[in-house]
Amino acid sequence: MSDNNFTATTVVDASPEEAFAAINNVRGWWNETIEGTTGAVGDSYRFEVPGAHRCTMTTTESIPGKRLVWHVTDTYISFIDDTAEWENTDVVFEISERAGGTEIRFTHVGLRPADECYEVCANAWGGYITKSLHDLITTGTGDPFRTDSTFDSELLKHGNTDLVKPRT
User: Fold this and answer.
1) Which end of the chain is more exposed for a tag (fewer CB within 10 A), N or C?
2) Is the pLDDT confidence value at 157 over 90?
């Protein structure tokens, strides 16, 4: 994988199998309202923040405790010119034992610094991986997008103040 793809890493005090199970609990760390299934090759689910962002993730590789790959299709990102910027990219989780715990290396293959969504998407992914997923594994409670959230509150949660529309 190229260093130009967005990558985030976190280390958790859990087994690789526990980390793998938590990653597949997408509702627990990324979005409470996904529709579909995760875990096995061929499973797919739809992620959506109404009016702002949607995509379908299909599991193309699943090696419990080691590696998980989701292929991204049906993408729409409302706040950039190329609304299909994530189309045919891949989200990869590599899991390995390390001294002091289990390392989860997340790479969004195809999300590159030159992309219009890179800064916003990298900030969001970084927060979801290093905070929400990490917390789900270590405390049992993540911080996913919730039905009572707004897109603006999600942007603020991840430090993306430049896209938040001022209230009048």
Assistant:
1) C
2) no
